[in-house]
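DATA CLASS: polypeptide
GOAL: derive structure tokens

***
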Amino acid sequence: MRICVRERSGSDMTLSKQDGTRGRVLIIAGSDSGGGAGIQADIKTVTALGGFASTAITAITAQNTLGVQGIWPVSDTAVLAQIQSVLSDLGADTIKTGMLGSARLVELIGDRLDGLAPETDRVVDPVMVATSGDRLVDQAAISAIAAILIPGAALVTPNAPEAEILTGKAVETVDGQRRAAERLLERGARAALVKGGHIPGGVLTDVLQTTDGEWIFEGTRIPGRATHGTGCTLASAIATRMSFAASVSEAVEVARTYLRGAIEHAPALGAGQGPVNHAWTLRPMPDD
């Protein structure tokens, strides 16, 4: 089965309401001092889409729209303690992973999640390179993500360069995206979304493959420089919709609509690749 999905307007987007039984998203990722990506973008996205975000911070970064000025890993012990605290009390309906700085940390997180939340869907965003081009993880960590986190993942969401690194397949066209997604499924992921934002052209295409079929999502590329944190934002939006029991394909469609609106309503902040407007779905408070 192959389905082509065209972009849709975000103006009539319906949000879910968190009722205490669904909508809980645990995010395991790094912090972004600039607020456009990482944990900050994740929390904003989950909240804007009606979910409840909890976190385990893996690293502190000094970064802005111009690049990454520094990275300070959080200790493995502290990361695992955060995960333990959240899952032993608040729980999670979906777990999303982002920047994981070392192979050892990936191994420890995999073990901890297998022990505490083996049945919880995981959305793996294999963050490797910042939008600015700065490298965020080493090769050993990349290999660990491929070997430990991708097998069994409910969804893995690489962009084109990340998909090339993970699969060894050239990802320069839609056919390349499809081949990379196929390889990720062969490696044990239940679904793979290979994003096309890095592939030139006026039409941006994302390819989703699952064990049930293939979806091709197409939309006109939005001009501008509001690209910082778009990968984190999309993955967290998908994880939020999945936490309300949406199918992967439905979650991807809604998340793409949300991200498109966030880009269209982006504030003109910073001198480089600016952030999106994560709060564009929220209604202003009425005047007193």
